[in-house]
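tool=predict chain=A
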Amino acid sequence: MIITVAKDETVMAAETVPSYEFPLSDNDNVMPRIYTVVWFVFENTDATDEKNFMCVDRLKSAMASTLVNYYELAGRLKTLENGGVAVTCDNSGILWQTATSDFSVKDLREINFEQSQLPDGLVNGAPANGELLTVRVTTLTDQSVILGVGMHHSLADATGTFNFIRSWADAARGLEIAKPNRDRNRLLGVSTSSPLSAHPEYALMPENPAPFPTLPPLTAATFLFNRDALDSLKAEALKEVAHLTNQPRLLSTNDALCGLILRCVYRADSVAAQDIKFGMAVNGRSRLNPPLPDNYFGNVNFFAFASISKQKLLASDGLGYAATAVRNSVDHMTNEYMVDALNWIASQENKAKIIPGFSSFFGDDFAATSWVTSPAYETDFGWGTLDVLVPRHKIPRHFIPSTFCPSTFWSRHFGRKPFL
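tool=predict ok
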């Protein structure tokens, strides 16, 4: 599968926007300084509408209008003396690319949108000029379109990213563009020498870190779970929990699914340590008191953290054990704990040295992010809602439950479809 970039452009806000240095929050400071990359697949089912389907000029004009409200995306990231980040809001613009391909949606369906077989050129996830947002519009041979979007993670979490994309889609349909809430005050911690809690979800980079190693070959897999399978899985987890604790326990479907994936991964990995760290991004908008609004544009991800015994994980009742560990880690994310986490971050001299306390990238640990309740699935630019949503993170041991691209994760240790 070949993708050919036809044109590179810069798209700026359509109107004059504020020009200033916009400091980001303590929670923004600890996010991975990478791009959140996602593909939206829109299938053209009308052979008579090849020219106007997902019209590039209309999409581009809508982007310029949307950047008036989301003007920080047209700026550039700046690293501060304390290792934190800010955005220089100067309307430098975003990277906009158009491309063609030699494959169709039918070709993608034949490989089940398998990550390992999909081409890499559907979005620019590392723009050369420091753009904070990149868009690549790729036209397929059947005149279907893939929108590849990459947004710098320092600016927003998945909820913020998808809210922006939905606003862009509204603009393309001629609707009013919602204004985001960008007030960072609630997510600024207070430096203190004595945080109330330990925060194992974070760690500090060593003074002399080892050189960044060469990544081994990574394999992606997509696993499809229907509703009946998920209901059965959750019922089995609840049954095991009742046996373990002699009392009922509330679990979510996501808890059970994470438990299953954990068991499968570490059954396949015979060299992993006996104590495994599990980290999962939790949306704190509704958990803070008072809550942050849904339209808050920034990072409100906090890391739920669990220490898991490999021996217990692989025991006969390991599904219930793992699901309970996941649930306990999520329940631990209270308003008090998250505020204390912000204070811990604020107390660190160099924000750039703060890293996750779990090592899923080159270590034995595991990370998860759920997109199941994401606002992305209703995205409609005027030609109908998307057909497929594909997260494009090649991160070892990272699991992303979602609705249209269920359960995608990468592993160094086994092939695409292990024993599920």
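Confidence is low (pLDDT under 50) at residues 404-420. The radius of gyration is 22 Å.
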